[in-house]
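Standup, Tuesday
Yesterday: got the pipeline producing structure tokens again.
Today: sanity-check two examples.
Blockers: none.

Example 1:
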Amino acid sequence: MGGKRWSNEENAILEAIAKEGAPLISQMHRLPGRTWESAKGHATGKGIRFSEASTWTDAERAILRQIYAGTESIKLGVSRRLPGRSYASAKAEASRLEIVGSVSRSERTGYSWIDLSLETILANGERMTVKQLAKQIGAQVQSVHNLLSKMRGTKYRIAEWTRETLTGDWAARWELGVGPDARRPARMTATECCRGYRQRLRMRAGATNPFASLVQQVAA
């Protein structure tokens, strides 16, 4: 049965299911003799897209339309306003509904959209590293770094420094603001690195109890 040609009637049923917003898996009774895998594959080849098994609500679809009509990053908008949906899921649903992005977004160039996205994230006083910011807005790390460096001291500044690993180099945490950056701490010396390494080895071997000092205080 898998090699049987799809009839115009079956194609019409697939299109109807997609327009209704119903998950394909729940409508297979309308396509007797066809499997979900074959129906899904055939529909994909014809550009027919279905809603997910977890059906989108009308309210979610309204928010999705607002996100696409705006100017901020789609990924950022989805993470902020549709936390229960993934970026890939939102793109698939928008494609199924034939939602087209705004002209301002489709024609944007350079770093303008990155700047807007960073400003939105940091507006509430957040402090984040370049890697964290890039992951949040869905941009390349180097692009975020270039934008921050370009506007350093005039719109963004380094508020503090943090280690991404116990003995790793310092990473800047950025915030909205003007003025000089926070002073960068000195690198760890070779002696400090070795001491930290030995400490980690002892902890992994169970030789060091991280709660030992607390236990001693309670016992006292």
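Example 2:
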Amino acid sequence: MVDPYIVSSIVYASLFGLMAIGLTLTYLTTKVPNFAYGSFVTIGIYTSFTIYRLLGLSPYVSAPIAFAVGGLSSVAMYLGILRTLARRGSSLVSLMIATLALDIGFIGIFGIYTDYLYYNLGIFDSKSFYQLLLDFSLLGLPGLLYVAPASLAVVTIGLFILLTKTKFGIAMRASVENPNLARILGINVEKVYVFAWFLAGGFAAMAGSYYDLFFTGTTSSGSDLIVEIFASSILGGLASIYGAAIGGLIIGASEILLTLVGVDFFGSWVARYQRGIPLVIMIITLLVLPQGLSSIDWKKILRLEMIGKFFRLRVIRYTLRLRMLLKTFRSRGIQ
């Protein structure tokens, strides 16, 4: 049997990987830290939970619907608020504060929606979400242990293919790296940004849909995760989609595993500071790698490793020759 904490850390890490990829997409397009991004996770939670109570469908089935709802909500936020403010000359700080205000507004909307479903329709048994015990089991392990990492892998590979093998993906990269030049070349930069925000909101909502199967939550569940999501994205380099996936895996897994280790060594009081672990990891990493994990030159490291291996082999070879010579001298001395 696999330890439950290992299962939780794998699931948690995979979900954070999905969330971090989406947050990085929003930052790449607008260069604005989107503090309302966690609300798209809550949208996914609400969508899958409501569909289950109305139609009895599993979050696995409703995940595509949650993806679409989250993506459309994200596009509406970008077109209706951020792009409008940016065209009116709002500063980066103003746009960032606007995302904070939107997050508060989302929480209020979620509260109103929950009250309506709870008091008028009686769909919810309580005003807080409870874990949906609808997951399947495979080899004695919960299905989300397989689905969550597989979803992260599919999304990452799909983005890689999109950005490197398709004309639209190359246009996306050009729009992110140099939007003015992309416009001169005839690329519809706004169309690219809308598509990127749709994907970002969809990834968050899909993670929220899976979240229902493993955790309980409230109207602010997604917003409460924003610190860990930002830590994952920053750890990955903030401008690297693939780095965000790795950062999410590190932050999500370490938050659970390091908390478990701390509780074993120091006592249960360590669990109170679980949310601080991602920040500590992020700070330590940025002290060593200011640009995050994406700044690591893996080719250089591999080259140095190969050089080191070459010298190690030469040392071993000369050591063996020296031993053979010493053995020869000793044998002649004995004779």
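Quick observation on example 2: The mean pLDDT is 83. The chain has two domains: 4-296, 298-335.
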